[in-house]
Amino acid sequence: NAFWMSATIELLNRSDGIVLAPNWRHSSGCRDENDFACSKGMPKADLDGIELPTARYEVVREMICKIINHN
After folding, report:
1. What is the C-alpha to C-alpha distance for residues 41 and 34, in angstroms, rounded to an integer?
2. What is the model's pTM?
3. pLDDT, tens digit, for every residue of 11-64?
4. What are 13-18's contacts with CB under 8 Å, separation 24+?
């Protein structure tokens, strides 16, 4: 709803990047967040396709570090 999206936009405006969780494309809110981040040219780590319970910690850490370091 509009309340949550406005809060999310406020948080994204304060962020250096975005991490998109697995299956984020199935959520209209996540798609909106992605669209906003893309419109601002924010770096993103797309974890879609990674099964987090079985993902190696290093894989997820590397993707998040790429956002932090803007790589």
Report:
1. 10
2. 0.70
3. 999 998 898 988 899 999 999 999 999 999 999 888 887 766 665 667 777 777
4. 15/42, 16/42, 16/43, 16/67, 16/68, 16/70, 17/42, 17/43, 17/44, 17/45, 17/67, 17/68, 17/70, 18/42, 18/43, 18/44, 18/45, 18/67
